[in-house]
Amino acid sequence: MQQPELVDLRYATEPVDGADGAQIAVITLDRPDARNAYSEAMVDSLCAAFDRAEADPAVRCLILTGAGAAFSAGGDLKRMRDQAGMFAGGPVALRRAYIDNIQRVPRRIALCDKPIVAAINGPAIGAGLDLACMCDLRVAAAGVKLGSTFVKVGLVPGDGGAYLLARTIGFPRALEMMLSGRVIKAEEALQLGLVHRVVAADELAAAAREVAAGIAQNPPLAVQLTKRAAYRAWDDGFHVALEQAAAYQGMVQKTADHQEAVAAFLERREPRFRGE
Question: Percent of the chain, pLDDT > 70?
Fold first, then answer.
């Protein structure tokens, strides 16, 4: 069966030493000119890449990383400003667009029984941080920045990030990060439990592969069912959270404050919010 073409994304597999044919799939967000922000094509490709990895019995673990200087900037603010593509239309259309586009990624990843290691090579901001939180384990390069910055541009986490971050570091810490929009570095993220390991940038790929290989050497069915059991204990409310996030994002993306926040960010000036 011919595999679908991947756009804004690269997919490769690597053997695991001493694991009798086991492989690691490496998925690389490949839109470096936009700091690996989401595009419609990237959403399609991410879902297709996870389908490919899950269908390949040799693949026992996945690594997700970014090309260039960023892991992911999340949503594409320029396309939001222009109300283009998935960001076009009124609140009802936007709600549907989030469900049909960006939210396909957390829904697909949530169905993946094979463990996923995020190799955070650069800033993971907004939906980029949420994407890292969708992964099971996170290894970060020293000094990289992470932040749930939606409020800074007049938005809410439209891809389930409010749920994902709270699941990852606990409700009080997640709420503080989300309400303040504060950006932290990898070293503080390690203290918060947001990442599991921090290494020098030139050691990141090897460190992520070491983590993935350690998992891949275990019996695959036991690993996958252990992951499934762990998440089933937590995730009963996940799909409700996604539905609510889509509805809220559809509302706030049409506010004047959101338009002002995006304009101020792109124009490198202080925003002037009016509460409307």
Answer: 97
Residues 137 and 216: beta-carbon distance below 8 Å = no
Judge whether residue 63 has pLDDT over 60.
Answer: yes
Taking 70 as the threshold, does the pLDDT of residue 2 lie above it?
no
Helix 171-180 × helix 161-169 angle, to 10°: 130
CATH class, 9-200+219-267 region: alpha beta
Strand partners, 59: 23
**Does the pTM of the predicted model rise above 0.85?**
yes
Give whole-number Cα distances, 187 to 23, 48, 199, in Å.
Answer: 30, 33, 10
Q: Minimum mean pLDDT among 14-23, 141-150, 189-198, 204-213: which range? A: 14-23
> Which residues are within 8 A (CB) of 145 and not within 5 positions of it... i.e. 6 or more apart?
123, 124, 125, 183, 184, 185, 186
* Confidence category of residue 208, pLDDT binned at 50, 70, 90: very high
How much is the pLDDT for 1? 56
